[in-house]
Design goal:
The chain is mostly helical. It has one domain. Helices cover 65% and strands 12% of the residues. The strands form two sheets. The protein has a two-stranded antiparallel ribbon with strand order 1-2. Strands 3-4 form a two-stranded antiparallel sheet. Strand 3 (32-35) and strand 4 (40-43) form a beta hairpin. Helix 1 runs parallel beside helix 4 (87-113), helix 3 runs parallel beside helix 5 and helix 4 (87-113) packs antiparallel against helix 5 (118-135). The protein is globular and about 45 Å long.
Length: 139
């Protein structure tokens, strides 16, 4: 694995893409929903919900998949960079870990936004628990 890129399922992704997605998640406020296709947030209103669901094919499942993929890629990057002893790799590892920690606030805000959907909230809480369990490996 090169220091700039890594490969997932044959698609080349950059560390900058993964960091950007983590920072995007970190900025989610309570009452906002993720629009995965456009990588933006939307208010939680009836009109927005109708447009998201019926015209944009956005769903809670797509949101969960986006979140899981983002954190999976982040941890893959960390594990790859830990094998490299350069200062650059060490700095990137610290930056990714910080972004993972910072992004958990956005996950908590998503759970509040969807508080009426117990299964969605449970999935978000499980993701947070899994992230925290994995972070212990890097302390």
């Amino acid at each position: 694995m090169s220091i700039k890129h890594f490969v997932v399922n044959g698609d080349e992704k950059s560390v900058q893409d993964t960091l950007s997605r983590l920072k995007f998640i970190a900025k989610v406020k309570e009452g906002e929903k993720l629009d995965i296709e456009s990588q933006t947030v939307q208010d939680n209103s009836y009109i927005v919900n109708v447009i998201r669901t019926f015209f944009r094919n956005e769903s809670r499942n797509r949101t969960i998949t986006f979140i899981r993929t983002t954190y999976g890629e982040a941890f893959e990057l960390i594990e790859g960079y830990l094998k490299n002893e350069s200062l650059f790799a060490k700095n990137l590892t610290e930056l990714i870990l910080k972004s993972i920690n910072d992004s958990q606030v956005g996950l908590e805000n998503l759970a509040k936004t969807y508080e009426d959907d117990r299964m969605f909230v449970a999935k978000i809480e499980t993701i947070i628990d899994t992230i925290n369990a994995k972070l212990i490996d890097f302390e």
